[in-house]
Amino acid sequence: MYKHIFAYEFKKMTTDRTLWILTSVLIGFTLLSIFNGSEWVKFQNSNLHKIKVHQKQRLEKHKKDIVEYSGKHELIGSEAPNSAFSIGTYTMLYIVKPPYPNATFAVGQSDLYPYYIRFSSIDRSNMLLNEEVLNPVNLLIGKLDFSFFTIYLIPLLIIVMTYDFFASERELRTFILLRIYYPNILKFLLIKWFFRVGWFFMVFYLGIFIALVLFSPFPLNYYDWSTLLLIGISSVYALFWFALCFIINMLNKNSLFNGIALTMLWLFIVLLLPAVLNIWIERKYPIPSRNTEIVKQREIKENTDNQGVFRQYLKAHPEYHAFKSDTIGKNVIAGWYPSYIVSVAVIDSLNDMSEQKFKNSLTMQETKLQDFSLISPALITNLAFNQISGNSYIDFKIFKESFKEQQSQWRAFVYDHILKGIPFKATDLNRQSNFIVYKGHPFPIDDNLRNLLWILILSIILILAGILQFKKNKYEK
Q: What is the pTM of this model?
């Protein structure tokens, strides 16, 4: 009997134009979404490669200039290539955050936060001048990546595919015949439902594989178990929508009711619930005005007494010269410069303390979203995509902290040379790479496995509830 059911369903589905349209849309959007993600990753990698090549050329030229200048001059001018004054002001370093292979599936926050930062030992403001100039329309609309397709569009495709898989049998009067030829109607409906589920996942996985083969910016062996976890979360999210369609069909309503009910559930689960939660969290943990923060930073800078800060610094560090002249050893240096560089470090520390409230609010918002994400499978999936792809807010927060740490190390090294009047040697430039690669941090595996299991449990509960509802309707009698 089951062989005949499968044959019947296969013939019915293969001759259904709507199904073939949905299959084409599913493959097409899968290819398009992964293509868009891969193009963004390629764009990032291309920029980072250009920076790396440029920095390598600059480093080699700088070393050569130091060797040549040192052999010709005894007195080191402030603009000399081996002057700590010149290196501290003009030598730029980069710290970069290369995209992970899984970023192909989710752009996340990477189009909002800088993935590379250019800095010197003196100033951090250079980063404001070196972020990518993006089309604001793209930032408004967003990129149609795989995560967007999975979270927002796949549920609609599943709804169209299964909203009437049982109701249509009753409306076309074939249900009466089914009760005659197939005494166990529930098994027939489950087979019919599983057939659609199997068809969807076959096309879905095929589309992912073809897209990666055609468009992947990385070799396929770069994708590891974390990629399987990401696809697994996508799969249980799709299964949740199939289960939701199953229980709605078991309510013994017509196709129109099923379509409207499922569409309203899509609006509630995917759009309304995350939006309401986000509004509540933003009200509970409001972000201070960015303009207010800028004004505070300006006030800190204006109220800082450079000479007073420098005097206190010299008391704490007697090993440094008091700079009573414009020359220290063989170094020519502007008298105002030592107090300036010390005050810049102090101002940056004060600014970090002032910005802490801003950062704390963003961190609390992200944390609360994680805590309440279980109420919405769409929100769970979205956060999981961002984490596994390495493009969450937390990833970029840690990246910025790593930048400050690297700058602090470089600043201490350069300041020591400036305040002791020591010229730079060519080998000193190797102290810290001028192209620093941020290694990233591991995403929370346990949390994502728990989220995957939670969506799977919800799906099973919905399927069992649908079966109980079917038996409650007493179709078998």
A: 0.84
pLDDT at 137: 46
> Residue ranges of the domains in the chain?
1-477
Residue that the structure tokens 């009997």 belong to: 1
What lies within 8 Å, CB to CB, of 161 at 6+ separation is 19, 22, 196, 200
Ranges of the chain whose pLDDT falls below 50? 125-140, 322, 324-325, 476-477
Residues in CB range of 183: below 8 A, 6 or more apart? 476
* The three-state (H, E, C) secondary structure of 25-59, written as one string: HHHHHHHHHHHHHHHHHHHHHHHHHHHHHHHHHHH
pLDDT at 428: 83
Would you state the pLDDT for residue 477?
Answer: 47
Q: Give residue 438's pLDDT.
A: 83
The 3-class SS string of the chain reads CHHHHHHHHHHHHHCCHHHHHHHHHHHHHHHHHHHHHHHHHHHHHHHHHHHHHHHHHHHHHHHHHHHHHHHHCCCECCCCCCCHHHHHHHCCEEEECCCCHHHHCCCCCCCCCCCEEEECCCCCHHHHHCCCCCCHHHHHHCCCCHHHHHHHHHHHHHHHHHCCCCHHHHHCCCHHHHHHHCCCHHHHHHHHHHHHHHHHHHHHHHHHHHHHHHHCCCCHHHCCHHHHHHHHHHHHHHHHHHHHHHHHHCCCCCHHHHHHHHHHHHHHHHHHHHHHHHHHHHHHCCCCCHHHHHHHHHHHHHHCCHHHHHHHHHHHCCCCCCCCCCEECCEECCCCHHHHHHHHHHHHHHHHHHHHHHHHHHHHHHHHHHHHHHHCHHHHHHHHHHHHHCCCHHHHHHHHHHHHHHHHHHHHHHHHHHHHCCCCCHHHHHCCCCEEECCCCCCCHHHHHHHHHHHHHHHHHHHHHHHHHHHHCCCCC
Give yes or no for a contact between 249 and 162, defined as CB atoms under 8 angstroms apart.
yes
